Amino acid sequence: MQAWQVHENGEPSEVMRLEDVAQPQPGDGQVLLKVRAANINFPDVLMCRGHYQVRPPLPFTPGVEICGETEDGRRVIANPALPYGGFAEYAVADAAALLSAPDSLDDAEAAALHIGYQTGWFGLHRRARLEAGETLLVHAAAGGVGSAAVQLGKAAGATVIGVVGGAEKAAVARELGCDTVIDRRSEDVVAAVKEATGGRGADVIYDPVGGEAYTQSTKVVAFEGRIVVVGFASGTIPSPGLNHALVKNYAILGLHWGLYNTKNPKLVQHCHEQLTELAARGAIKPLISERVPLVGAADAVQRLGDGVTTGRIAVLPSLGEGAAV
Whole-structure pTM over 0.85, yes or no? Predict the structure, then answer.
């Protein structure tokens, strides 16, 4: 079969190689899955660079999120068991962690309903306890993680402010349903948030960016607000001033979604049931900006790493070379 392999760490476009390899053999408690769609996530970029908290042995195949097909023909959502990731024709996954792919979503959308939406649900509901009528600020609102948080916030009855970088991403954020969109490249984020909230600030801030975005968050978080730290796409990990959190009465909440798979897997299943129901009634729908063939995976991973994508890019092994939709 064909699979992308990383033999050394570096930029995805430089270290990912499409090779003919042996089909992976599932171990105890694992199943072999035919990959129907694999979505590209920022951890794929970080793993190529060797900067992720999980460091699979070299060589490995990236791709942490797929919609796959079991040997008996069932469509499932899975996190492949590395080093046999999803940017391949076949992957392996833990049988106990498989989730049913919703009938309301196609393969690419179903694959994208997993990490980003689970992270959003846990971040907004389990950690921040977002309530209807509150104001939610989402950084990188047009990205894969941010777009999921926007949709989940709207579904929860929140007023959503989306921060993006550039006019194209601003248009995407509006289409997603943001009540207010702020282009950080042409606007003063802090001033714009204060204007949009009448000076009160945002009750919940969802931050997958870190760096300057986190600094802005501390300036616009409301009294008793909650900042949810999801990741550091900017490459800069902030050092929060806890005296500031004390003076302004806000909470800083960390979220590592992957821990729930071992600490409380039943809650992951419960979350998937909630997401499936929301998808069935059209309250959420993953934003798939591109569907590319397997041969296009390395370029797509690199573009995500460069910060020039919107929504999710899906890799579909069944697409012919050169095809993209």
Answer: yes
